[in-house]
Specification:
Elements: H1 2-14, H2 29-37, E1 56-59, E2 62-65, H3 90-100, H4 104-111, H5 116-157, E3 178-179, H6 182-197, H7 199-202, E4 207-209, E5 219-232, E6 235-249, H8 265-271, E7 281-294, E8 305-316, E9 324-335, H9 345-394, H10 400-404, H11 409-432, H12 441-457, H13 459-463, H14 471-505, H15 515-526, H16 531-536, H17 543-585, H18 591-597, H19 601-614, H20 618-627
Antiparallel strand pairs: 1-2, 3-9, 4-7, 5-6, 5-7, 7-8, 8-9
Helix pairs in contact: 3-9, 3-18, 5-9, 5-12, 9-11, 11-12, 14-15, 14-17
Length: 628
């Protein structure tokens, strides 16, 4: 026993960082004989034996080689125990690590288990995309109905509104809708009242008033103005305190009565001993409410939706520059609709199939969520056992970077997108069952769209299992740190250009009117969009501003298009070349990767194949049961 005690004391002397008491057990005679007969060139040990031959190892699709250390790390040929005993033996730990870092196809070959998680993700992609297409058509129809209703209100209530204003174009083909004279202001307000009084007769849509049995209700005309404002010659008497004055315009006549055509807001205010002083006027608005019904031509079911539209015609005179901007805003509120009709059988079956699809996707996503959580929990357990093993054998715990090798970020992304899709499916089912407001279409669309984006992005994980298809993932992993550092410097320079352009060119250029539009304009110019128009539409007679705009735009375009973007591409290409070099010549393995490479793949496969032969299948158990 003396040689064993001397070996034990030498091991204790090498572990100066952590003083632990080890129980030394003599290795079996078979293991000693095997280690003596093994050729030196074939020896491999995680514990530090020097390699005479450094074989190339494939890990995660990249060829790598063992680290070439000048010093030989002492190895231990003893079984050790401490306060935290190992759950698995060394061979079992390496086998589990080897299996853990295999891709689904390799696991299928090694263990013979069908890759159900892979199939589940493929099924999820198909059905989630189908659900997205169905929801997209419904949401488009709903939003289009609301937009068209708002457009019809503008054509009816806003005097001289033209179809050119319905087209969203940039720069706008027409100027702002505004009034410039007092007769235009009063005429515009009178037109709103006259159209409202006869809306049920002249409109092509289905509208009625808010009162009982669709009886006409009053309109509200309010304005805000300064308490005092007297300007004469070069003197001004001014009181900045504000006051709000409101008048109700009641149902003076029945709806559709010809006498409404003689209505004048100016005369009505005069009867109330009130007049509008435009020198003091800040804004004026006229509000009223209408009910309408949406008959769906597409959607989850064909029952109509009832809505209450609050309409606000706003006259903005805050700038006091002689131009009073006129806008019409609508706010929809869903009402309970009492149906008295029958539903087309085809529509009914369509509704049922949509609900079945929602439930099926929720079940699939819950299964995917549980499987991903299970994989992360298993990774945490294996990481803990590996950390204990490395502490015992190398007297050094795993670093944070090495522990992160056990965390598959794809599983984290899958958990997040499963949660998004589950929430979106529940909300979609509630919308189709009419238990929540249809205004939740936007929320549901964001959840479903973001979830679908992550689902399709997750397909890259499976392409990454093939060495010829994972170049995008590896390049992104390599380039992201450098790209983020480079982006930070670019953001500082870009922000300076944004603030400078906004404050100098904002009053003279339509694209620089706000900070957000300035940023959008500069970003578009970085991609070569509409460069000449940006130069041409500078509206100023000031030569200083004109020359500044040219110098500013030329500097920005030259700096960001020819320098910044080119450097961005160079950073990414450098990462791409680095990945190619690693793929050709190999890279140094980490301690975890050495553990994985230290265990032969054929040993892992033969172990699981032998275990599979010993286990009985479900069909064999059934046959044995009936034989009894």
């Amino acid at each position: 026993m003396e040689p064993i005690e001397e070996a034990s004391s030498s091991v204790l002397r090498t572990r100066s960082v952590e003083r632990k008491t080890f129980v030394v057990q003599e290795l079996t005679q078979d293991k000693d004989t095997a280690s003596q007969t093994q050729p030196h060139s074939e020896r491999s040990s995680l514990l530090g034996s020097s390699f005479d031959v450094h074989p190339a190892v494939t890990y995660g699709g990249i060829t790598a080689s063992y680290a070439d250390h000048s010093e030989t790390v002492p190895t231990s040929d003893f079984r050790m125990s401490s306060e935290e005993p190992l759950t698995w033996s060394e061979e079992e730990l390496k086998r589990k690590l080897k299996y853990f870092f295999m891709n689904p196809i390799e696991k299928w070959r090694a263990k013979g288990k069908f890759p159900w998680k892979l199939v589940l993700q493929v099924v999820k992609i198909v059905f989630v995309t189908l659900q997205l297409c169905v929801f997209g058509s419904d949401g488009y129809t709903y939003e289009l109905q609301k937009q068209n209703t708002g457009t019809s209100f503008k054509h009816m209530f806003l005097k001289d509104w033209t179809p050119l204003r319905d087209v969203v174009s940039y720069p706008p083909s027409t100027g702002p809708y505004a009034v410039y004279t007092k007769p235009d202001f009063y005429g515009n307000v009178d037109n709103v009242v006259k159209v409202y009084s006869d809306i049920t007769n002249i409109s092509l849509g289905t509208y009625c008033y808010e009162g009982p049995n669709c009886t006409m209700t009053s309109l509200s005309f309010c304005r805000q103005e300064f308490n005092k404002m007297i300007a004469f010659n070069q003197s001004v008497t001014f009181d900045s305190h504000r006051k709000t004055i409101c008048h109700e315009i009641p149902s003076l006549f029945p709806e559709g009565d010809p006498r409404w055509k003689q209505f004048s807001i100016q005369k009505y205010l005069a009867d109330k001993n009130d007049t509008i002083a435009f020198d003091r006027l800040i804004y004026a608005e006229i509000t009223f409410t209408l009910k309408t019904i949406f008959l769906k031509s597409l959607g989850s079911n064909k029952y109509p939706d009832c809505y209450n539209f609050s309409i606000d015609v706003f006259y903005n005179n805050k700038e006091h520059d002689g131009q009073v901007l006129v806008t019409l805003d609508t706010k929809a509120e869903k009402l309970k609709c009492y149906h008295n009709g029958t539903m087309n059988p085809e529509d009914k079956w369509g509704y049922i199939l949509r609900q079945i699809l929602n439930c099926f996707i929720i079940i699939i996503c819950i299964l995917s969520l549980l499987l991903c959580i299970r994989c992360l929990a298993k990774a945490l357990f294996i990481c803990r056992e590996t950390n204990k093993y490395v502490k015992l054998t190398q007297n050094k715990a795993l670093s944070a970077q090495e522990k992160m090798e056990f965390v598959d970020m794809w599983y984290c992304a899958m958990i997040f997108n499963d949660a998004l899709i589950i929430g979106a499916s529940i909300l979609k089912a509630a919308i189709e069952q009419r238990t929540v407001e249809s205004d939740q279409y936007a929320t549901c669309a964001i959840l479903l769209g973001a979830g679908n984006l992550l689902v399709w992005s997750g397909v890259l994980r499976y392409l990454g299992f093939f060495s010829k298809y994972n170049i995008l993932i590896l390049t992104l992993k390599r380039a992201i740190p450098n790209v983020l550092r480079f982006t930070l410097c670019c953001i500082l320079l870009y922000s300076g250009f944004c603030f400078c352009g906004w404050v100098v060119l904002g009053p003279y250029h339509i694209k620089f009117r706000s900070l957000s539009s300035t940023s959008e304009c500069l970003f578009a110019m970085m991609n070569g969009d509409d460069l000449f128009a940006t130069f041409a539409i500078t509206n100023t007679n000031n030569n200083l501003i004109w020359w500044f705009s040219r110098i500013y735009l030329y500097t920005f375009i030259s700096m960001f298009i020819y320098v910044v973007i080119s450097l961005f591409i160079s950073v990414i290409m450098d990462s791409y070349e680095t990945v190619k070099d690693h793929h050709r010549h190999g890279t140094t393995l980490s301690r975890i990767q050495v553990l994985v490479a230290d265990f032969p793949e054929n040993s892992c496969s033969s172990f699981y194949q032998q275990r599979r032969k010993q286990q009985k299948s479900l069909w064999q158990w059934i046959v044995m049961y009936f034989k009894k």
